[in-house]
Specification:
Bound molecules: 5'-deoxyadenosine, iron/sulfur cluster
Radius of gyration: 24 Å
Largest sheet: 6 strands, parallel
Helix content: 25-40%
Length: 477
């Protein structure tokens, strides 16, 4: 079989996966492969998957099984082809791989379920992907690279000019994700992440800084530091070594990088967030005014069952402190409804605290039992109906809160970073010269503004003139 060259990655799930897909593209480009634009255009298709909720998995199983139609029954071997009966079959073979969290969760069982998948790889093994593809190209099938460990940091060091090797492919030329840690040690009882991404390891501070400098030299203006729990970052690597507040020290170092304009980070865990962090948000000029702080539930009984390590009172106190220290800072959150045994009263507590706090954004999820996670042993006893109703109730509440927040912004002048071209925006901005760009405020609100594309990658002031579908619209001032 000739070497297959064009690779297409379909990404599911969180920002970690988005960044991992960029790394996989980069590793493949280094080996001479090129990114493809679609399934049809690709010789190698890799699904980078998420296992956090069953719904996400179902989408992957569905879409992966559809790919069977693209897979040639190796033309020479296929009896239908030999007999000239396979007119509608593709005239080339493709390689199909499943990477990411489902790779780790299901391993070789993926092949039992979907025979046409050629290789499986876990999130800690993405550096093996070029070698896996080579093996499949040379005739091997059903190979699996899934390790128990978290991502090995020495593999990154082993890549010559590591920042360069890891950034040959980037989705956006203005804003980039930068991993600061992999894995998680928290074991929230509903969560599969510590089992599929392994224990937490932090990338050494020097590595992170080198990578950001490399990006800034190539025009990047904003970085988002990524970790499952950035607040437990340890500049020396393993979670048990190193000092307190290493994350704040990292923010201080990143803030000193000249040419970098903005710094974002996610996710913060309420049990590790503290006043030092809020002071850094308030005091470091490049750090954006946005904190993603997942609450999960407003009921102390449920928080305990979730093994979250804080109470609703503690959470409220964090928000109060933060609003005192950094009054401009937006707060967003994650909520799970329908955790095992959640009563209407428990749910009421979640509703109340969301109402009181008035988040700038909230991702609201229906509880989904996950294999490996501790709560899998509990009975999933909240009916689908109740989950749906509670979910909708919070979505409505959140939409109302966001409308109230956003309407208050109209007339404000905000400093924004131009990110990418935008589609024609709402009527309020329509005019003869139609060019618009998407930009982001310090508080992480998206804004569509009438602006020349040369402002992509630039910081400029915009007067907010209106709101449509929760997107701000504005004009340059
Ligand atoms: N069911 C529903 N939501 C979940 N999350 C994590 N695990 C589950 C689960 N089993 C949500 C949490 C987390 C976000 C990334 O996904 O809210 O913060
Ligand atoms: Fe999962 Fe909790 Fe770790 Fe977040 S902090 S990845 S919810 S175990």
């Amino acid at each position: 079989m000739d070497k297959l060259k064009r690779v297409y990655i379909k990404t599911f799930g969180c920002q970690m996966n988005e960044r991992d897909s960029e790394i996989i593209y980069s590793l493949m480009i280094r080996k001479g492969y090129v990114p493809a634009q679609s399934y049809e255009d690709a010789d190698i298709i890799i699904f980078n998957t998420c296992a956090v909720r069953k719904h996400a998995e179902d989408r992957v199983w569905g879409k992966l099984s559809e790919l069977k139609r693209l897979k040639v029954k190796e033309s020479s071997k296929c009896p239908a082809n030999k007999a000239g009966l396979a007119q509608d079959m593709p005239d080339r073979d493709i390689i199909i791989g499943l990477a990411g969290c489902m790779g780790k969760a299901y391993g070789k069982d993926v092949f039992k379920r979907l025979e046409h998948v050629d290789f499986v790889c876990g999130p800690s093994n993405i550096y093996d992907i070029p070698a896996l593809v080579e093996k499949v190209s040379s005739g091997k099938r059903h190979i699996c690279s899934v390790s128990k460990e978290s991502r090995p940091l020495d593999r990154e060091k082993g890549l010559k000019g590591s920042a360069e090797s890891l950034y040959l492919y980037r989705e956006n030329n203005v804003s980039s994700f930068v991993n600061i840690s992999y894995g998680c040690n928290n074991f929230c009882s509903y969560c599969i992440v510590p089992y599929v991404r392994g224990r937490e390891v932090s990338r050494p501070r020097g590595c992170v800084i080198e990578e950001i400098k490399y990006l800034v030299d190539r025009g990047i203006k904003e970085v988002t530091l990524l970790g499952q729990n950035v607040n437990s970052y340890k500049s020396s690597g393993r979670a048990l070594l190193g000092g307190k507040n290493d994350f704040v020290k990292l923010l201080q170092s990143v803030n000193r990088i000249s040419g970098l304009e903005r710094i974002r980070f996610m996710t913060s865990h309420p049990k590790d967030a503290n006043l030092e962090l809020f002071k850094a948000i308030a005091g470091l000029d490049k750090v954006c005014q946005h904190l993603h702080l997942p609450l999960q539930s407003g009921s102390d009984r449920i928080l305990k069952l979730m093994n979250r390590g804080y109470s609703s009172k503690h959470y409220q106190k964090l928000v109060d402190d933060m609003r005192k220290i950094a009054p401009e800072c937006a707060i967003t959150t994650d909520i799970i409804v329908g955790f095992p045994s959640e009563t209407e009263e428990d749910f009421g507590h979640t509703r109340d605290i969301m109402d009181r706090i008035g988040f700038d954004g909230a991702f609201i999820f229906k509880y989904s039992p996950r294999p490996f996670a501790e709560s899998f042993k509990m009975q999933d006893d909240v009916s689908e109906d109740a989950k749906r109703r509670r979910n909708q109730d919070l979505l409505n509440l959140q939409a109302r809160k966001m409308r109230e927040n956003i309407v208050g912004f109209i007339g404000n002048v905000e400093s924004v970073l131009g990110l990418s071209p935008a589609k024609r925006p709402p009527d309020s901005l329509a005019c003869a010269q139609d060019y618009y760009i998407k930009a982001r405020t310090m508080k992480n609100y998206q804004i569509v503004c009438k602006a020349d594309k040369s402002l992509i990658g630039k910081i400029f002031d915009v007067k907010i003139t209106g709101v449509q579908d929760n997107t701000l619209v504005g004009n340059i001032v």
